[in-house]
Amino acid sequence: MLRKRTQVGIVGAGPAGLMLSQLLYRAGIDNVIVEARSRAYCEARIRAGLLEQGSIDLINEVGGGERMMREGMIHDGIELRFDGHSHRIDIKGLTGRNVMIYGQHEVVKDFIALRLSQGADIMFEAEGVRLEGIDTAKPVIHFEHGGSPVELECAIIAGCDGFHGISRPSLPSEKVTLYDHPYPMGWVGALVEAPPVHHELIYSATSHGFALFTMRSPTVSRLYLQCRPDEVIEDWSDERIWSELDQRLAGGTRYELPKGAMLQKGITEMRSFVCEPMQHGNLFLAGDSAHIVPPTGAKGMNLALADVRRLALAAEDYLKHGRREGLDTYSQRCLKRVWRAQHFSWWMTCLMHTFDSHNAFDKRAQQSERDYVVSSEAAARTLAENYAGMPWSWDES
């Protein structure tokens, strides 16, 4: 049995866990990351790819942004398409802030390399992870590593292991409320070896369903199609995907959709989910462990980074100065931003998707809302402000 001690035990080596580890390292706080998957798996796992201005600034602030600033694609706006017309939302002009396309797996690669170069203890391929004593001053993470049992004693445990991880189920069920809202659709996602159809993201609403045209680099596109929630990727041949994309690329100037080899494809479920509170005892959830948003609003990774930014400040105040107020109010403060992102993501999903349940009235009301968003500067500013992300100062009080 290997017994180890650290100040903060972090479960999960995704963006939340890695960013938290880096923030704590810079504050002089010892931490260990326990990750069930291999390093190769973590670095290859394709997820979100849009960073808000605050996330860009945070990554640069902690020293992880060199490759991001070199390879990331800065965007000043997005395009909405519906009823045969295109409408640009000028995010930069309306808010003064940008967004950036830079894949989540690229962020993970950068931060794993950075933390390992600094001597971080990242225990990949940990098996049988479980938490004990989260109500005590010395909670423990139990797991096996390299065939040997390990006990990691901590002052604080950060659960950054995602929606399907072990951290959230470790909270006493009678102490939390789970808000779950599944949507009546999914997204077919395809990673394609082809240049983007446009230099900014295109959100397209058509009678055939929603489509999103985005990118990962100047030579690789990321394309999404609305589908039924019960469909499997085997139902979607390459030919069917291209045919639906062609039909849903409608409005304004008719761009020719570049085609190329499909590098990867899959189906993403659509749901809104919040665990409240995001903490119990000395266990604190961050990122997808605590909340899920539909990808329409591009908020998932950004919320995770916002969570751990706050958690790192609270942990530093407690571990260095004995002040626990930041930890005790961690969930309450995080949830203000979480619920703002939840509402925006729900609203964007309802605005742009086709719903089988909609009657004639619902369809005309949806059409009216779309028209309002692109014809009113106030409405467009609201979309732009939420899309670019609320500044850090917004929820500091």
Topology record:
Layout: E1 2-5, E2 8-11, H1 15-26, E3 31-34, H2 39-44, E4 50-52, H3 53-61, H4 66-71, E5 73-75, E6 78-82, E7 85-89, H5 91-95, E8 99-101, H6 104-117, E9 121-123, E10 127-132, E11 140-145, E12 148-153, E13 156-159, E14 177-193, E15 201-206, E16 209-217, E17 220-227, H7 238-248, E18 261-276, E19 279-280, E20 283-285, E21 291-292, H8 300-321, H9 325-328, H10 330-352, H11 360-375, H12 377-388
Parallel strand pairs: 1-12, 2-3, 2-13, 3-9, 6-15, 13-20
Antiparallel strand pairs: 4-8, 5-8, 6-7, 10-11, 11-12, 14-17, 14-18, 15-16, 16-17, 18-21, 19-20
Helix pairs in contact: 1-6, 1-8, 8-10, 11-12
Q: Can you describe what's shown?
A:
This protein has helices spanning 15-26, 39-44, 53-61, 66-71, 91-95, 104-117, 238-248, 300-321, 325-328, 330-352, 360-375, 377-388, and strands at residues 2-5, 8-11, 31-34, 50-52, 73-75, 78-82, 85-89, 99-101, 121-123, 127-132, 140-145, 148-153, 156-159, 177-193, 201-206, 209-217, 220-227, 261-276, 279-280, 283-285, 291-292. The chain is α/β, with parallel strands linked by helices. It has a domain at 2-76 and 97-179 and 271-355: FAD/NAD(P)-binding domain (3-Layer(bba) Sandwich), CATH 3.50.50.60. The strands form four sheets. An eight-stranded mixed beta sheet has the order 7-6-15-16-17-14-18-21.
